[in-house]
Structure prediction request, 392 residues.
Amino acid sequence: MFTAFLLKYAEIGVKGNNRYLFEDALVHQIKFALKKCEGTFEIRKNQGRIYVEAQGEFDYDETVEHLRHVFGISGICPMIYVEDEGFEKLCDTVVRYVKDVYPDCSSTFKVNARRARKNYPKESMEINADLGEAILNACPKMRVDVREPEIMLHVEIREKIYIYSVEIPGPGGMPVGTGGKAMLLLSGGIDSPVAGYMIAKRGVKIDAVYFHAPPYTSERAKQKVVDLARIVSRYTGPIYLHVINFTDIQLYIHEKCPHEELTIIMRRYMMRIAEHIAGETACLGLITGESIGQVASQTMNSLAATNEVCTMPVYRPLIGFDKQEIVEVSQKIGTYETSIQPYEDCCTIFVAKHPVTKPNLNVIRRHERNLDEKIDELVKTALETDELIVVE
Ligand code: ATP
Ligand code: MG
Prediction:
């Protein structure tokens, strides 16, 4: 029965003179999301609100589902809209609306009319009273409660008349594209997709890099990362995923460096390469799924050692999250089931039995010098393997 949506946005409403930039970005993201839905839609900005009107047939559930992925939207209000054909007709429409949306007709309600078109013959207060009366006449079990109504029935009189009473929560945040771009280090695990989601939620566009180590990691493991990027892209829009062949670097580190430092040194090379690609693709920072103390490579000492190789800011939105909290977000955003598929992102030969938990930077640097002979060449070759997959 619904034919349109009023989309509410919270934070972008307070951006002063730049507000139109945020609104335009939001409209852009809404268009992108609705492209995947059946039906055609007209999207309009009007006095601090965004309206989406279906032009003919559309799939309501699918449309709501897509809108629930657009950052910047705080609430989705399904509406009906009608032409102004006189007040009698409006009373009928409102009564029909109430009966359709609340079939047992036994709630408390309040009518909240807003006359945005000032030449409408009745004033808001009068519209409230008259529509309220029409509802009470048609639905004797309904009662008016102006303080805490169960149903707040909004009637907006503009060129057309809009009626709504339901608000479905949106994802919040800021429209993607209003906050620059960052490079997500995306593995097949639970954490990094959540990290990407959280930074994108603040309006940041996401590119991603995955370090692949064939034949030690399978094609299926790579496909899992592509699948995860696709799920995240429902929120972020298209993700440019760089797949880097990391095998030779890993083998060389394995050959030349103490095994308990392998993970740290490997992570330092991941960060260096990610930063290089980020610099070439206009990214302003890196994003990882690290959280203090989760594993040996994420102690404060280890994070200091990995961080040291980068000059770009490294965003770690999960830094203070417990694993269970991360799992909850991953379930909410739909990445969890894919993340727990058993395709390892790292072969056991690259994981030491007793990795260092308090790496000493001077020692790490000294051991990295064992790599001097070939590492620059290997990094260069790895960068040449960059396979770009556009995920959407
Ligand atoms: P995740 O669940 O995100 O895989 P994790 O708990 O397995 O994280 P680590 O393997 O220590 O933790 O990785 C820490 C972070 O480093 C990841 O969150 C991710 O951002 C990045 N990372 C790890 N492995 C890769 C990889 N193969 N390709 C790209 N980034 C990676
Ligand atoms: Mg991992």
Observations:
- The chain has two domains: 4-169, 181-391.
- The chain has a mean pLDDT of 93.
- The first helix runs from residue 19 to 35.
- DSSP finds 13 helices and 15 strands in the chain.
